[in-house]
Specification:
GO terms for molecular function: ATP binding; microtubule binding; microtubule motor activity. The protein is α+β, with helices and mostly antiparallel strands. It is built from 26 helices and 17 strands.
Amino acid sequence: MGAKDVFTNPQFVTSPGNVGALKTSTDDQNNNIPALEQTEPSDEEWHQKYAFIIGLLRKPHAVLIKESLARERDKVSQKLQAYKLERSCVRDSIIKAKQIGTDNGAQQSLSAQMKHLDMMCVTLERQIDVLSNVDQAIPSTENIYSGEPDSLDGTSSEIMINDELDVPRGRNNRNSNFQITINGRSPLDAFAMLHLERCAHRETRKELNQIRKKYEVLRDEFDSGEGLSRSNSLLFSRINGDLEEDEMFSNNLTNDDQGTEMSIGTDDSSSRLVEEVRLKEMTISQLRSRLLHLEKARMDKVPVDAAREIARLHSTLVQLERVRDELTLQNYTLKSKLAELSARISDSATYRLEKPNHTNSSAPTVVIGSSHENGQDSSEDGTHVSVTSDELRLRRKSTYKVAHNNETNAEIKQLRAFINDLHAKEVEYQRKLSHMETELGNVKNQYADECAKRSEVEKSVAALKEQLEIAKQRVETTEKCFLMREEESSALKLDLDTLNEENKRLKDDLNLLHIKVEIEQSKSMEKLTKYEKEMSIFIEQNKTLLEDFNRERILRKKYFNLVEELKGKIRVFCRIRPPSKTEKSIDIVAKCSDPYTVTVETPTKGMKEYQFDRVFMPDDSQDQIFEDTKNLIKSAFDGYNVCICAYGQTGSGKTYTILGDETHPGIAPRTFSEIFLLANNMSQTYETQVSFYVLELYNDKLIDLLNPTAVVSSNDSPDNNKLEIRRDRRGTVWVSGAKVQFADDSSSLERNFRQALLSRHTATTRMNDRSSRSHLIVGLIIETTSKVNGTVQRGKISLVDLAGSERTGKSGVSADTLREANAINKSLSAFGDVINALTTDQSFVPYRNNKLTLLMQDSLGGNAKTLMFVNISPSSFNLDETIISLSYASRVKQVTNAVTRNAESKEIARLKNVINRIKRGESSSVDEDS
Ligand SMILES: Nc1ncnc2c1ncn2[C@@H]1O[C@H](COP(=O)(O)OP(=O)(O)OP(=O)(O)O)[C@@H](O)[C@H]1O
């Protein structure tokens, strides 16, 4: 195609008859030998063609092509280097894999990779070679300018241009605006194709030369035969279609009669020869058809002009074969004629010998062949011969010939010699013909081999072309991708520019905003600092105020208490015990809303509220209870009477509050420790003497628990009951006849106290496992004598654990203890009466109605600082009792005592002691008041 494009361009075709057409010279027309030199373009013509293309390749273009070729070669070289490097890495990996002994799959994968890399390396090396060849084929720029044909000489610019020729078509070419084309091809392509065409022509020329030489050899051999000049002329006259003379000669011999058949006879050698020739012809025709097929197949693949050349060569070959066939035919014809002539001659001789005087003319009669078409047998006697009309005619002719015997004898002889020669020549000719056929066969075989080789090469070239096409497509795809990426990149660049501008604008805005924000921030910071300062001031003020408030609150409470104390009011603490096991599932109705208020939810009257000096919650510990209580202990050291009592329904926690248990000691044991602690603290300035008594009011009877035997005797005999409740002149209640025991320390005091408690009356009720069935009164007398001035102060702490107020049915007391319950209720009722009288400012307070009220005379409205615990149960089960207790305690809180200090001067105390001693010596009664 490329070659066709180049050569169909009129500018290339310098001599239309020279290129693409086999021209037959005048001299060779007779011999039918192609004039190869004249059909092949001369070197000058080739140079003209090259020069035309090179003329187009002006210096800039040539330089560009060379540069682009060099670039391409460098690129491919770099690629090759990279592949080689990768190859060496893969090789190292394979070696390592073998050393380590990795699995076969990995090794196979590496091997496949290695093969691929090898293939790529080979391909790239070939590409580099091709590029180098093309580069060398392009003449240097000086030569382009000078346009010297030598520079384009086929020998000097001989390149192996094949279908792998890869003219750089990348960006470089595009960028260099290399747009000159020849029939749609770049000059470089045209140059390459021209070169290809020239090479093909050279090959064809070589081939034809060989054929021509062989042909000439054959011809020389044919011509060089002795005595063959005539036959040669005849043969070549036949070859050249000049058969007139021969036909005349034939007509002379055969009288040229239509329908006459000249039998050659049954000569075996001739028929064998004919058969051989026929077989050879068949073989030749088969070979020819095969050759034609192969030629056609090859022609499809070769450039058109080369194909045309080959076609012409082929037609020449066909012509030559036709000539050969004709010669063969003529040979046969001549052979048959010779045979005929021989037969005639022999017949004529026979006739002449047999009938020498038969006719006047004595001309021999010629019997031709064995043709006896009329079925008449010839007679052997010679006198009568039965002959056909043909025989008669022949005889006439023979007669004629005999008449000219003398003239023809010489000719016959000559003919015989000629026949002999012809026979010899025929043999020779057959030999040469067979030799020529063999040669022709060899040539054909060689040609077929060449064709096969060429087809192989063409196949490999086609495969390489395909690879090249794939590579080109890949390059084009890559270029397209690259272009797309470039377009995308440019679009992105535009976007980026826009975004950069936007970003810049936004940054400016942001900077402005930053400045504004900073200004605002600084302002805000100033304000914040200001506010913080103000806030800290406020916080400080608030803190101070809070502290002041708390201090004031405490002070207020303190002063309120003080006022209350000064007023002599009884202080009342409320303590709510935790729910017992049996009360867990029952509703809780009594709650502590704040440290001074207890609320009780009643089903009929709603929520009831009671205010007390302090309210303790169920989980408040014995420590917390005593913490708010121990100030009173100090008052006893100051000479005041102090009374701490617990009131409440049975099982509400009175005994737990006053006495406690072993693990949770109550107010009494803690008071013992506190007394001796204070005494110890004051031991520098005061001498302290502690004495105590423990009484029980059981069934309206006083029992001295420090002397329980006395109790038994008193019960048995009232006369022996010496325990009498008395008051001294300052109103302090004391019990005459009760054992007052001195205590040196708290432990001995507690030990004796616990011992005394063992004698207390208790019982198990439904409300309490260890219900106190009596009122317990513990008197602690503290007498302090100042070591400085001898002042004596005498204070008393009364700890009273009242028996539980109860409803007999609810508490489930037995009939045996019913009397105890009645006595308890009676005493508590008297206690209530006294409270009523005191709170209603009645002139008469019924202390004497009951021994309990008589005993507590100095604690209720008397000369004492009184603290009463009202113990309540939280559960709804005890709601009624709880409300009664709380109402009762609220009234007690209104009671005012007449609090005075029990202090005397040292002298009075001394005198009193003297008097007491005298009195003890003179009289046992020292009561000052009853
Ligand atoms: N605040 C409390 N914390 C823990 N347990 C308590 C509390 N108050 C009372 N109890 C328990 O409740 C039960 C009854 O208490 P306590 O004996 O003191 O009642 P009481 O009022 O003295 O009864 P009674 O009048 O029948 O003698 C006891 O087992 C006691 O341990």
